[in-house]
Amino acid sequence: MAQVPVPHEPTGWAVHHPGPIAAGPLVSVRRPVPVPGPDELLLRVEACGVCRTDLHLAEGDLPPHRPETVPGHEIVGRVAAVGESVTRFRVGDRAGGAWLRGTCGNCRYCRAGRENLCPASRYTGWDADGGFAGTTLVPADYAYALPDEQDATSLAPLLCAGIIGYRALRRSALPANGRLGIYGFGASAHLAAQVALAEGATVHVLTRSAAARELALALGASSAGDAYARPPEPLDSAILFAPVGDLVPVALEALDRSGTLAIAGIHLTDIPVLNYQRHLFEERNLRSVTSNTRQDGRDFLAIAARIGIRVTASPYPLSRAPQALTDLAADRINGAAVLVPD
Questions:
Q1: Of 65, 37, 139, which is closest to residue 98 (Cα–Cα)?
Q2: Is residue 29 in a domain?
Q3: What is the pLDDT of residues 94-114, one digit of tens each?
Q4: Enoyl reductase (ER) domain: which residues (predicted)?
Q5: Chain-centre distance of CA 43, in angstroms?
Q6: How many domains does the chain have?
Q7: Among 103, 179, 187, 219, which residue is least crowded by beta carbons within 10 Å?
Q8: pLDDT digits (tens, 9 = 90+) for 267-318
């Protein structure tokens, strides 16, 4: 196993008792530096994005898969050690760890290129410790090579917010030069919007945050209104990023005939009763988004580099991870929150 010296593990954070963020579900932990297995990388974390999924895990919206798990799955780091079977990365390389960390490779979904639906899929920060720490392990086959020259803080949100937003955009079946509505405008939405705009779409943003509406307009959105407002024209496609089930019928009503609504989140509050004529008739489509494939990640990172995607990030020292989650829960973050070493 090739390696370079790694200092003792800095303080990290684990989910102790899932519950309301105000109750303090995150606890500070100090653990030995992990040793990579044959197919793993040990990353010294340079930055880790704070995703709404981390909040769902901390608050118990998603049931824990194991006790005392370290969250965080938008990980940018330097390779500090590699397992004996790793050939794609060397010590000192910059690499990224993302949400998807393992699939079986043999099921009907994996064989069909739909590994995001693999029943045996595993996830960073849910099935294994993530990046709210000084070091973490990442399976080499699920890691992304990242550019050395880019700031780690701006790279981190690309690894989940960006990838999932990209998959949601594709699931929305947006036609060429189409009209896209985006409901909620946080970390994922502000990146997906830039891809859509670069591809010629007209983008309308619907969100309750005044600061997010300003950001949307600055990035090139044609309009920005309240989450429950009607966009200025019928939509060909829409993406719901806000985890608010009440917005599903609102977004469906805004669709033109044959329009598609994609729901991007892993968790959603209950959807109200839908009226067939108002919400689904005229061949309107309702789709969910489940994780991503590694090809989604490779495709999105290539597009992000090509269009020069702009990441709006708010850095927090690792020691203030609970505050970052608190601010995310209260919608006080414009763009993405990112943890960096103290």
A1: 139
A2: yes
A3: 999 999 999 999 999 999 999
A4: 19-339
A5: 19
A6: 2
A7: 219
A8: 999 999 999 999 999 999 999 999 999 999 999 999 999 999 999 999 999 9
Q: What is the CATH number of the domain that holds 91?
A: 3.90.180.10
Residues 102 and 220 in one domain: no
Within 10 A of 253 (CB to CB), how many other CB atoms are there? 15
pLDDT of residue 244: 97
Report how far Cα 27 is from the mean position of its chain's Cα atoms: 23
* Strand pairing class (122-123; 100-102): antiparallel
The answer to whether 18 touches 59, Cβ cutoff 8 Å, is yes
Q: How confident is the model at residue 4 (pLDDT cuts 50, 70, 90)?
A: very low
- Residues 190 and 283 reside in one and the same domain: yes
Tell which residue, 37, 41, 30, 29, has the closest CA to residue 8.
30
Burial environment of residue 336 by CB neighbours within 10 A (0 to 12, 13 to 18, 19 or more): buried
Q: What is the pLDDT at residue 179?
A: 98
Q: How far apart are CA 108 and CA 96, in angstroms?
A: 27
Give the span between the Cα atoms of 155 and 131, in whole angstroms: 14
Does residue 235 lie within any of the structural domains? yes
171 in the same domain as 150: no
Average confidence (pLDDT) over 186-210 = 97
Q: Which helix (H) or strand (E) holds 212?
A: helix 210-219
Q: In this structure, are 39 and 128 located in the same domain? A: yes
Burial of 170 by CB count in 10 Å (0-12 exposed, 13-18 middle, 19+ buried)?
middle
CATH value at residue 209: 3.40.50.720
Q: Same structural domain for residues 182 and 278?
A: yes
pLDDT for 25 equals: 96
Q: What is the pTM of this model?
A: 0.94
- The residue range of the domain holding 273 is 163-288
Judgement on whether residues 183 and 146 belong to the same structural domain of the protein: no
In contact, 18 and 64? CB cutoff 8 Å? yes
Same domain, 250 and 140: no
Burial 101-130 (b: 16+ CB within 10 A, else e): bbbeeebebbeeeebbebeebbbbbbebbb
